[in-house]
Amino acid sequence: MGLCSQSCGPTARTLLSGHSGLMLKNSMGFRKFAVSIGYWHDPYIQHFVRLSKERKAPEINRGYFARVHGVSQLIKAFLQKTECHCQILNLGAGMDTTFWRLKDEDLLPSKYFEVDFPMIVTRKLHSIKYKPFLLQPIIELHSEDTLQIDGHLLDSKRYAIIGADLRDLPDLEEKLKKCNMNPQLPTLLITECVLVYMTPEQSANLLKWAANSFETAMFINYEQVNMDDRFGQIMIENLRRRQCDLAGVETCKSLESQKERLLSNGWETASAVNMMEVYSRLPQAEASRIESLEFLDEMELLEQLMKHYCLCWASKGGSELGLKEITY
Ligand SMILES: C[S@@+](CC[C@H](N)C(=O)[O-])C[C@H]1O[C@@H](n2cnc3c(N)ncnc32)[C@H](O)[C@@H]1O
What we know:
This protein is 44% helix and 15% strand.
């Protein structure tokens, strides 16, 4: 059956309806499910998110695997180029567990910052405070005796989590500086499924602020692309029906529009690939391993889905470090 051409069959429609939310509202539950059936190793996620009983479609899990793999490859390339003498700002981090996983791999930057709305940070902090498995790695790296934790802030030597609105840049900057963000250090900024929630003007301001704040920097963005076609339109409709409005969808028209936003807001180089490209460039052994985990009925749906998400990265300065050579 042709998926999402003019006539989307009911199965495809139902699946697509699930997928539209997949990368958005409840994304951590989907990640946790993929982890639970062996797509990748993440012992931390279960401490942040409850496992839903509902089984997720294999294309969702493969999509998540490609996303986690792609983002992680770019993060590691940056850490390698800077020899970890750098900082990472994960903006709209939600329940992301990258900090803990990098620590396990001995790949921590000088400092790792997370930002999200105060309400989300309060939830995440609650888990961190009461679960030694999450708190211990932070304490272990913190040489001073008092760790600063309040309702929506934790600041320690190597990890900080800050409650702030990414659309209020003076407030964001002030809070980051209070936590010793260092504008002189090579800086990696990450937004995964975040910019699409902001208007094009708000995301442009955030990108411009980032480019102006750091001399040497890289930006990684993961979100929708090709949203102008029929499949994209159905994704948007499904989300609207659930009161989820993608204010920034206009910038998600094409790989070109994604790159253009970066280049016109102070970034010197920009690259973008759709997730099908990321998937098709997975190391053969990894692709075979995950493909043997679950039977996939409709390859066409996987392809359609993956062509509607992209991985973009940009750089500014850092030629001497080789930041401009980083590629997926
Ligand atoms: C779909 S979730 C993605 C979470 C995480 N990046 C991931 O990939 O798992 C989007 C996150 O961005 C956050 N977010 C969206 N707009 C934001 C804003 N203006 N300020 C701070 N956080 C924001 C949301 O609260 C949410 O945690």
